[in-house]
Amino acid sequence: MIRSVLALLLTLLALPGAVPALGQDTMPPAPYAYTQLEDPALEAEASALMHTLRCLKCQSQSIADSDAPMAGDMRHQVRSRILAGESPDQIRAWLVARYGDYVSYEPTVSATTWPLFAIPLLVILIGAGVLLRRLGRRRGETGAEAGE
Amino acid sequence: MKTRLWLWVPLALFAFFAGLAGYMLTQPKDQFVESTMIGEPLPDFALDPAFGGLPGAAKADFAGGRPRLLNIWASWCLPCIAEAPQLEALKAQGVEIIGIAIRDRPEDVARFLARYGNPYTRIGSDRISEVQLAIGSSGVPETFVIDGEGVIRYQHIGDIRADDVAVLLAELEKAK
C-alpha cells in the first residue's frame, strides 16, 4: 500500500519533466539570432536597436535579453536588415507598423502615452505649490508671533 | 472640520491604488499582442512546402476573389492539436485554409497531419518566423481572414474553440 502510494507520488512528481519537448520547437536558431555582424559599427547599431525592442513572447524582456526562439528570429530580422542597409529607425517603424507601440521597449511619447510623462510633472508642480504656500504661511505666522 | 476631511484624501488615494494593484494581481495577464496589419495587404512572400504532401504558400495563393483562412501553426504547438477539429469543421463548410508552419521540420509536419487530420490545401514552411513577423503575428496558433484581394481582414489569436467557428465563418462572409 505505502509502496504504491509512493510510486504514484513519484510518477506525479516526474510528470512535468516528462513532456519537455512539447510546446517548444527543436529547430536551430536563425542565422543571425546569436551571430554578431562582422562589421563592429553595424553590430553596435543593431545591438542598440535590439535593446529597445520588446520580445513578443516574453514581454518583460527586450529581444536582446531573451532566449525565446521568436526573439532570436526578431534579432535575425534586425541584423539582416541592418546588413541590407536599412536604418534602425526604418526597422523600428517596420515593427511598430505590425505590432503597434507594444513592440517598443523604450517608452515613447505618443497620443496614448503622454499622460505617463505629464502626470508626474504635474504632481511635482502641485506638491511644490502646496509646500511653498505652507512654508510662506508658517513664516507669516512666526513673523507675526515674533512681532507680538 | 473641512480641513480635517481634506487630511484623509491622500490616505484614501493610497488605499485606492493599493486596492487596484491588489485586484490587478489576481487578474490573468493579457498576453495577446494584436496585429496592427488588419486592413493592410499581405506582404510579399513565397514559402517552400512544409512537407512533401502539399505545395508551399505564397502571397499569390490568396488572389482570385474568394476569402481564405491563413492559419499560423506548428507541429510542436499544443493548442494547435486542440484546434484541429475546428479547422476540419471549417474545411467541411467549404473554407480554404492555407497553413504556415513556424520553425518546423517536414517529418514532424507529416506526423502531425497524419495524427490530427489535414485541413490545409497548402502549407508553407517559415523556418525563421519571417512571414509571421511580417504579418504581425506573435504566436501559434493564430488565424487570419484574408479577402479575395489578399488584404488581411481579421485576426483570431489562440486556438479556435468550437464557438469561434461561427465567428470566423461570419468574418469570411464579411470579407466577400
Structure in words:
The complex is a heterodimer of chains A (148) and B (176). Chain A has five helices and no strands. By secondary structure, chain A is an all-alpha fold. The termini of chain A are far apart. The relative contact order of chain A is 0.09. Chain B is of the alpha/beta class and 176 residues long. Chain B has one domain: Glutaredoxin (3-Layer(aba) Sandwich). Chain B has five helices and seven strands, in the order αβββαβαβαββα. Chain B has helices at 2-26, 78-92, 106-116, 130-134, 164-174; strands at residues 46-47, 57-58, 65-73, 97-102, 120-126, 142-148, 152-157. The longest helix of chain B has 25 residues, at 2-26.
Helices and strands, with pairings:
The complex is a heterodimer of chains A (148) and B (176).
Chain A: H1 2-18, H2 40-50, H3 69-83, H4 88-99, H5 114-147
Helix pairs in contact in A: 2-3
Chain B: H1 2-26, E1 46-47, E2 57-58, E3 65-73, H2 78-92, E4 97-102, H3 106-116, E5 120-126, H4 130-134, E6 142-148, E7 152-157, H5 164-174
Number of domains of chain A: 2
Q: Could you tell me how far the N terminus lies from the C terminus of chain A, measured between alpha carbons in angstroms?
A: 93 Å
Helical proportion of chain B, percent range: 25-40%
Question: Beta fraction of the residues of chain B?
Answer: 15-25%
- CATH homologous superfamily grouping of the largest domain in chain A: Cytochrome C biogenesis protein
Oligomerization state: heterodimer
Main β-sheet description of chain A:
none
- Residue windows where pLDDT falls under 50 for at least 5 positions of chain B: none
Order of helices and strands of chain A: HHHHH
- Give the structural class of chain B: alpha/beta
The percentage helix of chain A is 55-70%
Q: How much strand content do the residues of chain A show? A: under 5%
Largest interface: A-B, 26 and 25 residues
Count of separate DSSP helical elements of chain B: 5
Distance between the termini of chain B: 68 Å
Number of strands of chain B: 7
Give the overall pLDDT of chain B as a whole number. Answer: 94
Number of H/I helices of chain A: 5
Q: Can you summarize the main beta sheet of chain B? A: 5 strands, mixed
CATH superfamily of chain B: Glutaredoxin
What's the Cα radius of gyration of chain B? 22 Å
Pfam families (chain A): CcmH (PF03918)
Function (chain A): Possible subunit of a heme lyase.
Keywords (chain A): Cytochrome c-type biogenesis, Heme, Iron, Membrane, Metal-binding, Signal, Transmembrane, Transmembrane helix
GO biological process, one term (chain A): cytochrome complex assembly
